[in-house]
Structure formats: structure tokens, C-alpha cells
Specification:
This protein is mostly helical. It has helices spanning about 5-25, 35-55, 65-80, 80-85.
Length: about 90
């Protein structure tokens, strides 16, 4: 099973941002910054941004999900197969 590198990168960034946010909430700083308010705002912005990107994108990890993605792409490009159109 081959996973798209961009899917892996988005997932890693999301996990790191969530861990960083959790550490900031419980008072543990991953990055030593003197201005804690700026740090927390930046962390929150990164968490929200990566969460929205990861949520918006279709991250297909399983072979079935990848097959469904290719089927969806084919339908968008070529339309429904004739046997499906007859059943509908």
C-alpha cells in the first residue's frame, strides 16, 4: 500500500501541532519563548490551520479509499458507467 507523501506530511504536521497545543494548554512549553501569549497564539493558529487543512483534504489511507478516489475521479471525468445510469 503506497500512501501519498503529502498525506503523510499533513498528518505529521497535524499531530505535531496538536501535541504542541496540548503542551501549551497544560503549561509545558515545547519551544522556549519569553512571550507566552505570542507563543500560545501562534500555536493556536498553527493548530487551527493544520486541522482545517487536514479536515478539508481527502486523506485516503486504505486501499479501498484509494480505489474509491480513483472511481470518483473517473466518474467526474467520464460520467457514470452505462450500467449504473440504467439502474438509476
Amino acid at each position: 500500500m503506497k500512501i501519498n507523501p503529502r498525506t503523510v506530511a499533513r498528518t505529521i504536521v497535524l499531530v505535531l501541532a496538536l501535541i504542541n497545543q496540548i503542551l501549551a494548554i497544560i503549561g509545558k512549553d515545547m519551544i522556549d519563548i519569553t512571550e507566552s501569549d505570542i507563543y500560545q497564539l501562534c500555536t493556536l493558529a498553527a493548530t487551527v490551520t493544520t486541522s482545517l487543512i487536514a479536515w478539508w483534504k481527502n486523506n485516503s489511507f486504505t486501499e479501498a479509499a484509494k480505489l474509491a478516489d480513483s472511481y470518483m475521479k473517473a466518474i467526474k471525468e467520464d460520467g457514470l458507467p452505462e450500467e449504473v445510469e440504467e439502474d438509476a
